[in-house]
Design a protein that fits this description.
Layout (H helix, E strand, L loop, with lengths): L1 E6 L20 E6 L16 H14 L5 E6 L1 H12 L4 E7 L7 H9 L3 H7 L1 H11 L3 H17 L5 H6 L4 E6 L7 H10 L3 E6 L11 H11 L1
């Protein structure tokens, strides 16, 4: 059975995909994992980073004796998957990115990082704060602060350059929702045009949060692409 690894976005966890997994089990051997510091995992001493999360995937693959695997990467994880494809091309098969932000600069990163202020979230969106605490445990505020720090670093020096994307040979389906308020169609199309073996998908009536996506459409596209 074809192996498929589904990866969560920044400040997310693998539990977000629980409604999706049963819809794929008839065709795929589906796996998920949580990155370092997420979902109650120990907080690493160093910074959160794309290379760190890529290393998490490699360690998981090595532990499970998996040589190569296809990846569905939601949001930040689409970037992590492409980073793996660039630096460890033999470990990755096809890649499906959903709502991945590619346009990183200091101003945009500062704006994104500013949305991860734990105190403001507790004050203005207490239900979201509660959900984050349930997702990541007692260290949820640390997860937010380390993610914000990663975004600032990312804005100053993205993990992949335009030239890096152009070197990736893997089949990639790059997708974005037409109502995504975090990721633009323009930045998605730009990266699609850099990749040598890519397809472009615009998901209709689709916002950024995975929980608001139409699962049947995601399943259809997963079956079609992989």
């Amino acid at each position: 059975m074809q192996k498929l690894l589904i990866l969560h976005g920044a400040i997310g966890s693998s539990k977000q995909f629980e409604p999706l997994l049963p819809l794929l089990k008839n065709r795929f051997d589906v796996f998920t994992l949580d990155y370092s510091g997420h979902a109650g995992k120990p907080i690493p001493e160093g910074k959160f980073s794309i290379p760190l999360f890529a290393e998490d995937i490699l360690n998981w693959m090595n532990h499970n004796t998996i040589k190569t695997i296809d990846i569905l990467g939601y949001s930040m994880s689409g970037y992590v998957a492409l980073y793996l494809a660039k630096h460890h091309p033999d470990r990755v098969g096809k890649i499906f990115t959903i709502s991945t932000k590619f346009d990183w600069n200091p101003q945009g990163a500062a704006k994104e990082a500013g949305m991860l202020n734990a105190e403001k979230i507790e004050e203005k969106v207490p239900t979201f704060a509660k959900a984050l605490a349930e997702r990541h445990g007692q260290h949820w505020k640390t997860v937010l602060s380390k993610t914000a720090e990663m975004m600032i670093d990312f804005g100053n020096q993205p993990a992949l350059t335009t030239a890096d994307f152009a070197e990736i040979q893997h089949p990639v389906l790059v997708s974005v929702g037409d109502r995504d308020n975090m990721v633009s169609l323009e930045e998605t199309v730009f990266i699609y045009r850099q990749l040598k073996n890519a397809q472009l998908l615009v998901l209709p009536q689709t916002q950024h949060p995975f929980e608001k996506m139409e699962l049947e459409r995601i399943v259809f596209e997963v079956n079609r692409f992989f």
